[in-house]
Amino acid sequence: MKKTLIVANWKMNLSTHEASVLVHRLHQTIPTHRSVEVVLAPNLLVLQPISVEIDRHKFGLAAQNAYHRDSGAFTGEVSYTMLQDLVHYCIVGHSERRIYFNETLEVVRDKVAASVRNGITPILCVGETKQERTENQTKQVIHDQIVTALFRLTSEEVSEVVIAYEPVWAISTFGGEVAKPHDIKLVIDYIRKQIADLYGQRVSEEVRVLYGGSVDDQSAQAYLSIDGCDGALVGSASLNYQKFANIVDTAYRLQHEESEHHG
Ligand code: PEP
User: Fold this and answer.
1) Which atom of ligand 1 is closest in space to residue 164's alpha carbon?
2) Which of 33, 37, 94, 128 is an active site residue?
3) Cβ proximity of 30 and 245 under 8 Å
4) CB contact set of 126 (below 8 Å; sequence gap of 6+)
5) 197 CB-near residues (< 8 Å, 6+ apart)
6) Rounded Cα distance, 7 and 107, in Å
7) Please, what are the domains in the chain?
8) Which residue of 7, 104, 111, 195 has the fewest CB atoms within a 10 Å radius of its CB?
């Protein structure tokens, strides 16, 4: 059975000291679960100090962003190469980056390729805006985001990628409407169908698909119970150690129930 993946996207929050306090609390509250993988995505500055504070059996690390070239005259940027020893994952194509920093489909494609080239698993975020949903363009948007982002990868590499379905309208910073699990399932199924058409059935079953959009300790159970949903990308609720610990606990309980169910 796949491990459930729960990712904390701290975004541009927390000083080094605040992050250290949060990690300390998370250590105290979250036990080591073999069936749940917990990954923290702090800001770049905090990544290094946090990396020496965390128990690697308990928490993995992700970067929130990096530049697609490995080195060179790119003032102000940090490359995937530089992050290699620090993180297992990197969030790529988050809607805040697409919207606020004008990251195009091609930029996201180059970042996914750079991430894989440097041995870092991309957490590729895809999702439609409110307007796109209203205009019935959800499938087209998801299709274009997936096809371009994975364009440079082999099937083997695609099977390792994590895809986070994050409808922009459901993310707390963009309105945070509550998404219905049934609607999320339809899109997750569509994502897997895209992967199956492009890379085959086996890859589409192996690829991990997460849900992200205002997941908190109240809604986690409903989203994590969606058939085909392998975990959650959590934004604002991940800054609250109790809420985040409860989400991880929910993931653990659901895994446990399922394995008992399957004997
Ligand atoms: C996110 O931005 O990835 C996210 C899911 O945020 P929130 O949980 O705050 O909606």
Assistant:
1) 3
2) 94
3) yes
4) 93, 141, 142, 145, 146, 149, 163, 164, 165, 166, 191
5) none
6) 23
7) 4-262 (3.20.20.70)
8) 104
Name the nearest CA neighbour of 180 among 213, 142, 143, 152: 213
pLDDT for 256 beyond 90: no
Tell me the per-residue pLDDT of 148-182, one tens digit each, with 9 for 90 and over.
Answer: 999 989 999 999 999 999 999 999 989 889 999 99
Active site residue 24: no
Cβ atoms 251, 36 nearer than 8 A: yes
234 lines ligand 1 (CB under 6 A): yes
Q: Is 77 helix (H, G, I), strand (E, B) or coil?
A: coil
162 lines ligand 1 (CB under 6 A): no
> What is the amino acid identity at position 147?
V
pTM (predicted TM-score): 0.97
Distance 213 CA to ligand 1 centre (A): 5
Q: Is ligand 1 within 6 A of the CB of residue 127?
A: no
- Ligand 1 within 6 A of 83 CB? no
Quote the ligand 1 centre to 125 CA distance (angstroms): 11
160 is catalytic: no
| Distance from residue 166's CA to the centre of ligand 1 (Å) | 8
CA atoms within 13 A on the CB side of 62: 25
